[in-house]
Amino acid sequence: MKKIFAAAALTLAFAVSAMAADSVVYPAKNGSVTFNHKVHSSKNECKVCHGDGAPAKIAINKEAAHGKACKECHAAKGGPTKCGDCHKK
Fold first, then answer.
1. What would the pLDDT profile of 70-79 be if each residue is shown by its tens digit?
2. 3-class DSSP assignment, residue 57
3. Exposed e or buried b for every residue in 4-21, given b needs 16+ CB within 10 A?
4. How far lies 30's CA from each of 15, 17, 26, 38, 78, in Å?
């Protein structure tokens, strides 16, 4: 019984860590924004966000998030655009 419990706990730990690896949390004054890379990459080609170069981490700040990097794309593709849609306290 202990082996089954240990195996289940280990499986759950791997699943949670895999989900966390797909997400990045950006802290913000009006609530943190969680960016899920897996969700976004399933809806867009890499070059939409990363350009024609090799994919690399993108530096996001308030201006970029409220402009071309996030909000303008969301508006064009039907994603969330209201503050509370992305910012969660």
1. 999 999 999 9
2. coil
3. eeeeeeeeeeeeeeeeee
4. 29, 26, 11, 24, 23
- The pTM is what? 0.67
**Three-state SS annotation for 19-54:** HHHCEEEECCCCCEEEEEHHHHHHHCCHHHHHCCCC
- The domains found in the chain, sorted by start residue, are 25-88 (3.90.10.10)
CA 41 to chain centre: 10
Cβ atoms of residues 87 and 29 within 8 Å? no
Reported confidence tier of residue 67, pLDDT bands at 50, 70, 90? very high
